[in-house]
Amino acid sequence: xxxxxxxxxxxxxxxxxxxxxxxxxxxxxxxxxxxxxxxxxxxxxxxxxxxxxxxxxxxxxxxxxxxxxxxxxxxxxxxxxxxxxxxxxxxxxxxxxxxxxxxxxxxxxxxxxxxxxxxxxxxxxxxxxxxxxxxxxxxxxxxxxxxxxxxxxxxxxxxxxxxxxxxxxxxxxxxxxxxxxxxxxxxxxxxxxxxxxxxxxxxxxxxxxxxxxxxxxxxxxxxxxxxxxxxxxxxxxxxxxxxxxxxxxxxxxxxxxxxxxxxxxxxxxxxxxxxxxxxxxxxxxxxxxxxxxxxxxxxxxxxxxxxxxxxxxxxxxxxxxxxxxxxxxxxxxxxxxxxxxxxxxxxxxxxxxxxxxxxxxxxxxxxxxxxxxxxxxxxxxxxxxxxxxxxxxxxxxxxxxxxxxxxxxxxxxxxxxxxxxxxxxxxxxxxxxxxxxxxxxxxxxxxxxxxxxxxxxxxxxxxxx
Length: 465
Fold this sequence. Notes:
The protein is mainly alpha-helical. It has one domain (7-217, 229-463): Growth Hormone, Chain: A (Up-down Bundle). It is 79% helix and 0% strand. The protein has helices at residues 7-14, 16-36, 42-68, 78-96, 107-130, 133-136, 142-168, 170-173, 178-208, 222-233, 236-266, 271-281, 283-299, 301-315, 318-324, 334-373, 378-407, 420-445, 452-463. The two termini are 28 Å apart.
């Protein structure tokens, strides 16, 4: 049966709508919201977000391992997902609609508390949700299609609300005005809650029928649990993906935190124009949905990931270089916008295909590790990879906030405040770091060893146990 005819396929994928919205908010809006609305200086805002990420990174490992060993009538994963269903929408709303009077004395602490609550809530839902895949799908190539759908849902959820937000709310009121963020926070919270509930209820029956773990998580024997975590994460194939995530987390955290600064002050696009770029990006998940499984089947996951990511990172700096050399169309004009949007659309296709392959490669590590440890650790593996990305993404946000302060952009409120010298400095700090980190990460993917034959051998070995 084609996966499109299986309701579980759609329920599994739909959870990513919530994560797409949250990721978009944290990546593109939160730093500029913190500095220009809450009034927290860039380096202090970066510090608060970094602390929240560090907390989240540590909690991910234990929650992932705990979900691997949870014995419940609801299954291993769903008790965590239902807890996140309550916490995530409420904390997302509170972030963009402060529930206390914000003052100079408390604004940093409010930002920190809201960020920690949201990230904890996301961990409760996202890690158990994505970890369902190795139990739901065993086939090497079929996993690519399930993850392509999940990535598509995430991009359509996050980018869809982003387009509306830039057209009618934050983009219309201005990035330094609370009103637009307030509307965004309400709508985002409602969609997040609906997405989590739909996916959790839709996958509940199949999750309850899965075998229960033979060994429970024991808080009283936490050192034993830590040793099991260490045993699982020393799998060599996992380690390459883990270190890859460290580098990409730093690059992505820096890039996305600077996104609105770049498009607003470097390329000089208006809120409505930024929304148009988002409309172009609607094509990217659809293209990647068909492209990722085809490339994975033709070339294998590793080489498909490397090619897709290299293509994206090759395209990324071109608009910046052409702008600085005077070869790009007039800043803020529609010719500039359309060409820039095609670049972004192509880059996003590459990043999605790479992400699908990497997530699918992580699913294959589950059986590779089980052959060695006789224990399934999918929650731990996805949590550890998430841990890497979040922990080092904190570094990326610190770098972004520091760049904002170094370039002198903390006090900027409009495009006229941005000088050509500041644009040169922004590109000079940002682009070498971003592209360099990705190139090293692509090399690390080449060290991963599980291919289709290895995966099938692992499945055969496990069937004989």
